[in-house]
Design brief:
There is one protein chain. The protein is of the alpha+beta class and 209 residues long. It has 2 domains: 149 residues, Glutaredoxin, CATH 3.40.30; 46 residues, no CATH class. 26% of the residues lie in helices and 23% in strands. It contains 6 helices and 9 strands, in the order βββααβαβαββββαα. It has a 7-stranded mixed sheet with strand order 2-1-5-4-3-8-9. Strands 6-7 form a two-stranded antiparallel sheet. The longest helix is centred in the last third of the chain and has 17 residues. It is globular and about 60 Å long.
Length: 209
């Protein structure tokens, strides 16, 4: 699938769990358009091993995202009922109790497919029947979506490779800096550091230091 960078994030409406304890229908990222940036991330499955470390890590840094007026939303191919059960299981028993940002249910796998992170594919047997090949779960995809609903950053990890939440925050800072000041952010830039104007003179000055 082609990159979504610079394109509108695929629209969807789905069931989700909010605040760790409320199942809702008709959840959509459209509610954030014009109001907030969104960090929308996929993980393979509830009740697994690397996944709770990531979801809890996002919760641990949720205040940092909220200070930046950024919504965090997770998604997997599990049902909303599986999400609810996991969210209400103690952490010392493999759960993620205390996670409060929304978890979207993608039981049909269409959201993962539309975002290009579905690990499985489809082939046909000799009789022409569609068969699934590969793991029917989502890769560890993350998408930074701006206030216009456009994807500005994405990263997709294979199933065994956990992500850096700090890097997601850094990319939020870079996007917001560019939008506020019009300056571009060089390699390894962090909030508070000097950025650059998008000119050759600015680049030469930056590299000469």
């Amino acid at each position: 699938m082609q990159s979504l960078i610079g394109k509108k994030a695929p629209a969807f409406t789905a069931n989700a769990v909010l605040n760790g304890n409320q199942i809702t229908e008709g959840f959509s990222l459209e509610q954030f358009v014009g109001k907030k940036e969104v960090v929308f991330f996929f993980y393979p499955l509830d009740f697994t091993f690397v996944c709770p470390t990531e979801l809890i890590a996002f919760q641990d840094k949720l205040e940092e995202f909220e200070k930046r007026n950024v919504a965090v939303v997770g998604c997997s191919v599990d049902s909303e009922f599986s999400h609810f059960a996991w969210l209400n299981t103690e952490r010392n028993k493999g759960g993620i109790k205390g996670v409060t940002y929304p978890l979207v249910a993608d039981l049909s796998k269409t959201i993962a497919e539309n975002f290009g992170v579905l690990a499985s594919d489809y082939d046909y047997d000799e009789e022409g029947n569609a068969i699934s090949t590969g793991a029917p779960v989502a890769y560890r995809g993350l998408f930074l979506i701006d206030k216009n609903g456009v994807v500005r950053h994405s990263v997709i990890n294979d199933l065994p490779l956990g992500r850096s939440v700090d890097e997601a925050i850094r990319m939020v800072d870079a996007l917001q800096h560019f939008e506020e000041f019009g300056e571009v952010c060089p390699a390894n830039w962090s909030k508070g550091e000097k950025a650059m104007e998008a000119t050759q003179e600015s680049v030469s000055e930056y590299l000469s230091k």
